[in-house]
């Protein structure tokens, strides 16, 4: 399990260059092109990874090709931030090819969600880089709702806000309390898949955030049970569940618990604040969660706050 020592990337300014890679599944060119145009209209320059439009079955290229794009953009001094085109599947396959020392020497803003969880928590585990669980370019820049979520991301990574509070009064409080810890998490199925590896971060006093999509309720139960059996929740000081989209059972006569009930059951024996249905995950207009910074859950005053800058 990786040690936690935080490195913050430099802020992003208008006119800077954003690099885009496809470290997981292939993308539809027209969707990525639309996102690229949006970035350019905001005043950013764009540099693409060599294999950003690649396609090799359900991957956007070989493991080595996708890792090389990550290396190239992190080592390019003209690139200030690296965004992912989309998630899908395949990020976990390139971990063994990544030069984490190169990333440590060239820390940059890194943004993505879903399958990109594997890259973000491994960067935290291996070199302490703060990353951003937020929008992808091809999948999250196609309507005004997504633009509003992207606007929040830009504020966080351009230093326009040194603190941010999420009003949690409209969400479900499962367990009350107040706690301060380090935000660590992502897509539940990907997060769980790294347990026991050298790419999994230290979760002592962490506020763990989790979401997922297209999973049967019994699989969500299995992932959460795995985390519980490994003692993960006993190390945490807070737990946040996002949106679990398209996670209803596909079985016509299913009579088992739904995801909300599974989450409630998971939290029932925990003595830490737990909230659910926060607006992050596989949804439009998602909020961005910095991975690796200090945050506070306060169910009495109904807020989740980011307590420090995520960039320098």
Helix and strand sequence: EHEHEHEHEHEEEHEHHEHEEEE
* Beta strand count: 14
How would you describe the shape?
globular
What's the assembly state of these chains?
A: single chain
Query: What separation lies between the terminal Cα atoms?
Result: 27 Å
Which percent range describes the beta-strand content? 15-25%
- Profile the largest sheet: 8 strands, mixed
Task: Work out the helix count.
Answer: 9
| Poorly predicted ranges | none
CATH class category name of the largest domain: Alpha Beta
Q: How much helix, percentage-wise, in residues?
A: 25-40%
CATH homologous superfamily name of the largest domain? Answer: LD-carboxypeptidase A C-terminal domain-like
Tell me which CATH architecture of the largest domain applies here. Answer: 3-Layer(bba) Sandwich
CATH topology of the largest domain: Glucose Oxidase, domain 1
Spatial strand sequence of the major β-sheet: 6-14-13-8-9-10-11-7
Q: Overall pLDDT, averaged? A: 95
The total tally of domains equals 2
- Gyration radius from CA atoms, angstroms: 18 Å
């Amino acid at each position: 399990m990786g040690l936690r020592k935080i490195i913050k990337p430099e802020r992003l300014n208008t006119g800077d260059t954003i690099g885009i890679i496809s470290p997981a599944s292939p993308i539809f060119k027209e969707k990525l092109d639309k996102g690229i145009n949006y970035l350019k209209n905001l005043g950013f320059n764009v540099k693409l990874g060599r294999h950003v439009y690649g396609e090799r079955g359900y991957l956007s290229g070989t493991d080595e090709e996708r890792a090389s794009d990550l290396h190239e953009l992190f080592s390019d001094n003209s690139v200030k931030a690296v965004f992912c085109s989309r998630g899908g599947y395949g990020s976990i396959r390139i971990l063994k090819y990544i030069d984490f020392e190169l990333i440590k020497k060239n820390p940059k803003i890194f943004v993505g969600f879903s399958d990109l969880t594997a890259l973000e928590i491994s960067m935290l585990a291996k070199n302490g880089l703060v990353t951003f669980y937020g929008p992808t370019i091809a999948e999250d820049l196609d309507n005004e709702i997504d633009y509003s979520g992207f606007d929040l991301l830009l504020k966080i990574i351009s230093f326009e806000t040194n603190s941010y509070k999420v009003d949690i009064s409209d969400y479900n409080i499962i367990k009350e309390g107040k706690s301060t810890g380090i935000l660590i998490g992502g897509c539940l199925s990907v997060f769980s898949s790294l347990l026991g590896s050298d790419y999994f971060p230290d979760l002592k006093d962490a506020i763990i955030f989790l979401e997922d999509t297209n999973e049967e309720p019994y699989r969500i139960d299995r992932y959460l049970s795995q985390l519980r059996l490994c003692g993960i929740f006993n190390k945490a000081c807070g737990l946040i569940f996002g949106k679990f989209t398209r996670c209803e059972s596909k079985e016509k006569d299913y009579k088992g618990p739904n995801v909300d009930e599974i989450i409630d059951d998971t939290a029932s024996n925990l003595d830490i604040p737990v909230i659910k249905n926060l607006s992050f995950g596989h949804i439009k207009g998602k909020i961005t969660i910095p991975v690796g910074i200090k945050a506070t859950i306060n169910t009495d005053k109904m807020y989740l706050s980011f307590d420090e800058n995520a960039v320098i």
